[in-house]
Amino acid sequence: QVQLVESGGGLVQAGGSLSLSCAASGSIFRSDVMGWYRQAPGKQRELVAGITSGSTEYADSVKGRSTISRDNAKNTVTLQMNGLKPEDTAVYYCYARLGISVYWGRGTQVTVSS
């Protein structure tokens, strides 16, 4: 069983930065995918960024403004977001994909004011 706990959300002005962290408990290997999705009101949940074995992927909407990193020893994944825009406002969910199983955190709210 894997549990994910997010931290670091909050209110920030447009152009500002936030760092989201996710701490995982349980057995997670570096080959397992970890990352972040987000869901804005009235919209579907969408991938923000993912990382596995040093390989990363980003949504086009955040590419160039965000960096995902992972500490395998501590089982943590961090998303650094810069140049935040009001359209980045959403609940951000940490996820981990272990084989066919996907685990989710409870989410952390990010609100970007214009």
Tag the structure with descriptive keywords.
114 residues, four-stranded antiparallel sheet, mainly beta, single chain, 11 strands, seven-stranded mixed sheet
Distance between the termini: 40 Å
What is the N-to-C order of secondary-structure elements (H for helix, E for strand)?
EEEEEEEEEEE
Low-confidence stretches: none
Q: Please, how many helices?
A: 0
Total E-strand runs: 11
How does the overall form come out from the CA principal axes? globular
Helix content: under 10%
Overall SS class: mainly beta
Please, what is the average pLDDT? 95
Major sheet summary line: 7 strands, mixed
Strand content: over 45%
Question: Radius of gyration in whole Å, from Cα?
Answer: 13 Å
Folded structure, characterized:
The chain is mostly beta strands. The protein is 0% helix and 58% strand. It is built from no helices and eleven strands. The chain has strands at 3-7, 10-13, 18-25, 33-39, 46-52, 55-58, 66-71, 76-81, 90-98, 101-104, 108-113. The strands form two sheets. Strands 2, 4, 5, 6, 9, 10 and 11 form a seven-stranded mixed β-sheet that branches. A four-stranded antiparallel β-sheet has the order 1-3-8-7, with no helix packed on it. A hairpin with a 6-residue loop joins strand 4 (33-39) and strand 5. The protein is globular. The N and C termini lie far apart (40 Å).
